[in-house]
């Protein structure tokens, strides 16, 4: 799995002119699923992200996690994180097919909810407009093929 996590003051997703999900302080998570990913991968990545300490404490050090600041997550499916950029026109054959990707996307969000977080989301495969106010800015890249 690949995830781009941005610390935000607010974020929202709009589909066909209607806001589908929105959060205040928290993480905007763009989540891509690869063909080798499993439920275990989804759970481990969710745990890692939910416990990530990138909010500032009273000494302005990134030392607080999502729970400590009462944050939420907005999770957006993002198959383009698996783009093959070896040519001018990206290819997406390295992304998982929907029959694998959808359940793992759902499992990732379920694991975040199991930890007590509010999780807003888009719609898998939909054309979405995503807006965010990045805080910091702080953006972290995760790739479970490289490490967890």
User: Sheet bearing the most strands, described?
Assistant: 6 strands, mixed
Distance between the ends: 10 Å
Q: Shape, please? A: globular
Give me the oligomer status.
Answer: single chain
- Mean pLDDT, as a whole number? 96
Low-confidence stretches: none
What radius of gyration results from the CA coordinates? 15 Å
Q: Report the portion of residues in β strands.
A: 35-45%
Structural class label:
alpha/beta
Helix content: 10-25%
Along the chain, the helix and strand elements come as: EEEHEEEHEE
How many strand units? 8
What is the helix tally? 2
Task: Summarize the structure in words.
The chain is an alpha/beta fold. It contains two helices and eight strands. The strands form two sheets. Strands 1, 2, 3, 6, 7 and 8 form a six-stranded mixed sheet that branches. It has a two-stranded antiparallel sheet with strand order 4-5.
Tag the structure with descriptive keywords.
single chain; 20% helix; two-stranded antiparallel sheet
Note the topology.
Layout: E1 2-15, E2 18-23, E3 26-32, H1 39-50, E4 55-56, E5 62-64, E6 72-77, H2 98-114, E7 119-121, E8 129-143
Parallel strand pairs: 3-6, 6-7
Antiparallel strand pairs: 1-2, 1-3, 1-8, 4-5
Helix pairs in contact: 1-2
